[in-house]
């Protein structure tokens, strides 16, 4: 081998270490993904609750107005 040799040698141990590191990274990403899914489910539930109030509020207001009109008529 001379000074012009640009080859790279990778040992099986180096390959193994990299694979173990990648396994750890993939597990970490899986945990992060689950956290994001949990947050998304929470936000979805909150939005559904707000939407329910949004549609129920005009009905409650209408019922109040009708009730007030009935009381005024009496």
Structure commentary:
This protein is mainly α and 74 residues long. It is built from 1 helix and no strands. It has one helix spanning 12-73. The radius of gyration is 32 Å and the shape is rod-shaped. 0% of the residues are buried.
Comma- or semicolon-separated keywords:
74 residues; mainly alpha
Summarize the structure.
The protein has 74 residues and is mainly α.
Question: Could you report the average pLDDT, rounded to the nearest whole number?
Answer: 89
| Low-pLDDT residue intervals, each spanning 5 or more residues | none
Which class of secondary structure composition applies to the elements? mainly alpha
Question: How helix-rich are the residues, as a percent range?
Answer: over 70%
Biggest sheet layout = none
Encode the helix/strand succession as letters: H
